[in-house]
Design brief:
The protein has helices spanning 12-27, 37-64, 90-105, 109-113, 115-138, 140-148. By secondary structure, the protein is mostly helical. The chain has one domain (12-28, 47-148). It is elongated, with a radius of gyration of 17 Å. It comes from Immundisolibacter cernigliae. Its main location: membrane. This is Isoprenylcysteine carboxyl methyltransferase. It holds the Pfam family PEMT.
Length: 153
């Protein structure tokens, strides 16, 4: 099978939205609130703000390098600047931070537990396929990038 495109079956934001929605849905019949009160709440607010800011920085870098954010399209350029200097997947990191922030803000253990399935699904169905595509597309340049920059943090 060719790696000309990443072949990602679902847009990652949909996976995270399903995880958050399922967690909030489970919270209604089976409440499992988190402790922490105001500290937990404001930690959630801060994490959501950080996630949105990180996502915005990622978008800016992708636009600057004239490559796509769409995981169904081929990458035209390898981006190694901005947040991509520290993480090979800063957009997915921002979605993960957003999920944690929503879980804290909503005081929902269920939302946080959704990480137990969303992260392995992301790794298998999204990250692995994108990495295969980038190896195919950029070869040694991508291998060198992988040697310098961690997958998540």
């Amino acid at each position: 099978m060719s790696a000309e495109t990443p072949r990602v079956p679902l847009p990652p934001p949909i996976l995270y939205a399903v995880a958050i929605g399922l967690g909030l849905w489970l919270e209604r019949p089976l409440p499992w609130p988190l402790p922490g009160g105001a500290l937990r709440f404001w930690s959630g607010v801060v994490l959501i703000a950080l996630a949105v800011a990180l996502f915005g920085l990622c978008l800016r870098e992708l636009r600057r390098h004239q490559t796509t954010i769409n995981p169904h399209r081929a990458a035209s350029n390898l981006v190694e600047t901005g947040p991509f200097r520290f993480s090979r997947n800063p957009i997915y990191l921002s979605l993960t931070v957003l999920l944690v922030g929503v879980g804290l803000l909503a005081s929902s253990t269920w939302v946080l537990l959704m990480l137990l399935w969303v992260l392995p699904v992301m790794q298998r169905l999204v990250v692995a396929r994108e990495e295969e595509h980038l190896r195919w597309r950029f070869g040694q340049e991508y291998a060198d990038y992988c040697a310098r920059v961690r997958r998540w943090l």
